[in-house]
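So, who can interpret the following?
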Amino acid sequence: MPQSDMSGSNDIQSKIQANSSLSGVTATTNDKGAIELTGTVNSAQDRKEAVRIAKENANGKKVKNHIKVSASAKDNSSMNH
């Protein structure tokens, strides 16, 4: 895999880790060159924030979101909107 692909996910990873509420998120580059986000966060807002950071720094690469919201956070929020 080209070094530039790896540095892209490393860049995103460092920006995500700068936000303490996103410490459970990992950004990696898959074999197709897309950025994959994995891990668990405490709220849907944290999940959206991680995706936003990744997309802003993906340099045109696709961002695949596999982040889960922790079960306890889901239980505390209303499912009806």
Notes: The two ends are 43 Å apart (CA to CA). Confidence is low (pLDDT under 50) at residues 1-5. The longest strand covers residues 35-41.
